[in-house]
Amino acid sequence: MSAPRPTGLTDTAVDVPDLTAEEILARARAVAPRLRERAEDIEEHRQLPADVVELLRGTGVFRMAVPKEFGGPELDAVQQTEAIEALAAGDASAAWCAMIGMDTAIYAGYLAEDTARRLLADPDAVTAGAIMPMGRAERVPGGYRVSGQWHFGSGITHCTWVVGGVLVTRDGAPEPGPPGTPGNWRVVIAPVTDFELQDTWYATGLAGSGSRDYRTQNLYVPEEFTFSFAAPRVTGAAAAPDAVLRNMPGVPLGVARAALDHVRHLATTRIDRATGTPWTEDYRVQTVIAQAEMDLAAARYAVYGSLREQWDSLEAGHELSPDQRVATVLARVNAFRTARSVVATLFDLVATAAVYRPSVLDRQLRDLNVMCQHVMAQDQVVQSAGAHLLGGAPRNAYSLGLVPGPRPGRPEARVRRDGYERP
C-alpha cells in the first residue's frame, strides 16, 4: 500500500503554516454564513461539493489536532468543539464532515512516528470511516489481509484516508482479545482508493454528509498502518480512546444556536394573526424563546465545563474519576437530545410556515433527528455511564473511553464480561 502525499513533502518534514486556535475559530465563524447560503445545494448533492470542502479546508479545521511537534496548532478539545459549533451554525452536514475529517491527527497518535508523519504529510488531509469492528483482518507476514463492509463513512467522498475497525483472525480463526471483549479489535488505515464506495446515503437529515457504505476484499494493509486504542504512542489527553468523540457536541449545539437566532430574528417582524399581538409582546412566544435559551445554555455549559475539566486532568497525568469520565459522556448525549428538543419546540412555535421547503427549521430538525440516531447518542451510552458510576457492566465501554488492555502510564482499564457489543 502506498500512501499519497503532496508534491514537495517528505515522510520526515511536514510544512504546516502557523494557525492559532483563535484564528481557526475566527475563520470558522466567518465561513458560516457562506455555508448557510450553500445549505440547500449541499443537501441536494448528498455530499459536500468540492468548493465547500475547500471552504472548510481554508479554515484550518482539518488540521486542528495536528500536534505542535509536527508544526500544527494542536487545539484542545474545547477549542476543537468551538470551531465545529461555529461551522454548524452555517450547515450541519459541513460541520459533521469537519468533525470527522479532522481525526487524522488523533489516529496518528496511535501509530509509530514515521508512519504518523506519512499520514500527516498533508496537514489538511481528511480521514473518514467507522472504527467499530465491522471487518475482518487475517494475519499475514508483515500485516493483514482485510475484508469487510462498513457503514456511515461520513465525508468519504472527499477524504484521503479511510479507517475501518476489524477483528483479527489467524488461519481463519478469531484471535482472542482482552477478557470480556469479542476478539482482538484493531483499526486499519488505508488510502480511499483502496475501497469501493457504495452510493447508499439517501437520508432525511445530514443529507450532505455523504455518509456512504464502503467495502474492500483481501486488501493488504501493513502492520504499521493498523493500531489498537489500548496502545497509544502519545501521552496526555490526546491518548484517550474517546478523543475522536469529544468535539461531537459542537454540531448539535451549533445547529440549535442557529435555529434560535433565526426564530428570534423572525419574531421581530411577526404578528399573531388571531390576536394582532406582535410576537415580541406575545407571552407564549416570550416564554418559548426564554425556555429554549435556558435549555441550550445549560447543555452548552455542561459540554464545555466537563471537557475543560477532563482535558486539564488528563494533561496533568491524572487518572479520571468515574464522575469526571461520565460527565463528558452525559453532557455529549444531552447536547444532542436538548438541541433536538429545542429545535422541535421552535418548529412547533413557527407552525405551518416551518414545513415549507427550503425552510431553515425543517432542515435543521431533520438534521438533528438523524444525528440523534448516532450510536453515541443512544440509551446504551447513558446506561454505560450509569453502570460505570455504580460498578456495573457498561453496554458500550468505548463511549466512556474504556478499552481493555495495557495503556502506558495508566492502570489497565477494567471492563466486565459484556463490556462490548458485537457489531
From TrEMBL:
<dbReference type="InterPro" id="IPR037069">
    <property type="entry name" value="AcylCoA_DH/ox_N_sf"/>
</dbReference>
<feature type="domain" description="Acyl-CoA dehydrogenase C-terminal">
    <location>
        <begin position="252"/>
        <end position="378"/>
    </location>
</feature>
<dbReference type="Pfam" id="PF02771">
    <property type="entry name" value="Acyl-CoA_dh_N"/>
</dbReference>
<feature type="domain" description="Acyl-CoA dehydrogenase/oxidase N-terminal">
    <location>
        <begin position="24"/>
        <end position="107"/>
    </location>
</feature>
<dbReference type="InterPro" id="IPR013786">
    <property type="entry name" value="AcylCoA_DH/ox_N"/>
</dbReference>
<keyword id="KW-0560">Oxidoreductase</keyword>
<dbReference type="InterPro" id="IPR009100">
    <property type="entry name" value="AcylCoA_DH/oxidase_NM_dom_sf"/>
</dbReference>
<feature type="region of interest" description="Disordered">
    <location>
        <begin position="400"/>
        <end position="423"/>
    </location>
</feature>
<dbReference type="InterPro" id="IPR013107">
    <property type="entry name" value="Acyl-CoA_DH_C"/>
</dbReference>
<feature type="compositionally biased region" description="Basic and acidic residues">
    <location>
        <begin position="409"/>
        <end position="423"/>
    </location>
</feature>
<dbReference type="Pfam" id="PF08028">
    <property type="entry name" value="Acyl-CoA_dh_2"/>
</dbReference>
<dbReference type="InterPro" id="IPR046373">
    <property type="entry name" value="Acyl-CoA_Oxase/DH_mid-dom_sf"/>
</dbReference>
<dbReference type="InterPro" id="IPR036250">
    <property type="entry name" value="AcylCo_DH-like_C"/>
</dbReference>
<protein>
    <submittedName>
        <fullName>Acyl-CoA dehydrogenase family protein</fullName>
    </submittedName>
</protein>
